[in-house]
Protein: Aminotransferase
Organism: Marinomonas phaeophyticola
Amino acid sequence: MAYEVNNFDSTDVVNNDRDHVWHHLSHHKPFEKTGPMVIVKGEGMRVWDSKGNEYLDAVSGAVWTVNVGYGRAEIADVVRDQLVAMNYFAQTAGNVPAAQFSKKLIDKMPGLSRVYFSNSGSEANEKAFKIVRQIAHKKYGGKKTKILYRDRDYHGTTIATLSATGQFERRNHYGPFVPDFVEVPHCCEYRAQEEADKENYGVWAANQIEKVILAEGADTVGALCLEPITAGGGVIEAPEGYWARVQEICKKYDVLLHIDEVVCGLGRTGSWFGYQHYGIQPDIVTMAKGVASGYAAISCTVTTEEVFEMFKEDEDPRMGYFRDVSTFGGCTAGPAAALVNMEILENENLLENATEQGAYLLKRLRGLMEKHAIIGDVRGKGLLVGIELVKDRTTKEPVDESVITAVAGHCMANGVIIGRTNRSFREFNNTICLAPALIARNEDMDQLVEALDDAVGEVASKM
């Protein structure tokens, strides 16, 4: 064999990486002097780089993905066996793991019934947007094409999903964008709008969505796309009253409710899906990252039977069906890995653990808030947690992004990898984002908090 997993020269690997790999979200000039980090091993919640350094990973693969932790041989073994038996056939035909996983997934999602496979969260959301647009033409004479999205939410890297993303710096330089995507206000209570009803902020924030619908024309709005908890935009949970009112508004104006569970899905918040905390019934749910915990590429666009039935009408047999394809939606590795991933989540009670460890982490972080005045807010649900840093608690003026960068660098130097709002906003790149694997234990949370305590204290002392 030309390639062996555990047989490599680390210097050679680093040189090849530096000379030929184009990294995500990275300035490459520094690599000319230091070389890029190369991760070579993972086990549980820890990873090792090519220099032998060990890190506690508090963001599940840096992008909120490895929910059940590293080194799960039981997933890898099933994927290997599946690929040998049947690795790929286009989803114009069925395959065994896709059929079995679809049933297991739908059992966790009352009210929904159909699973469309693709290979990334961006693609899953693209499929949802195409479903909405085709319904607009099939059912509404081409009028209900507009898709609403929320300030601070993120929905993907493609031009269409960036068109539906409420983060200025993520979008900057990529316009012009796809028409008929319309922004609605955020629901971050800590950053409540000046004119907001502070006593009933959740309902007030939801009512702003209704105002946008009426301003645009209810007969032109086809869907509302929201994260159940804004993740990369600062870990923002909507206040009480928000989701019930959102559901009322969508029903009132015949607007499909699309919930983007790419980050929250498959246990991160302590339930199978984030929306399930709030008693709502979406029409479309998208998911990706935690579906197979990064052991294979997979994403899903899940709909109600009512949405699915709209594509079975026979008025135009040539063009009336959902005319979409995802090449790697036909790869069997994804659903095979996802099946075992769900079994691990169930058998090891990881949803319950996410709830318990999340509560423990929040308690410890609120203790840090009492110690460090630079911490303005601590928030989150389950193992999805945000820490917003400010120059002054009274004014809530955000720290510069360089402060967050310094905190993350300090933690990294002490063997802990954390996340942060990263070149997303004009001024609110000031939130530390934590998403540890759902296997976390108290000692892992203690190590994380101790690293943050040291880093925040050191960086704040130099401001």
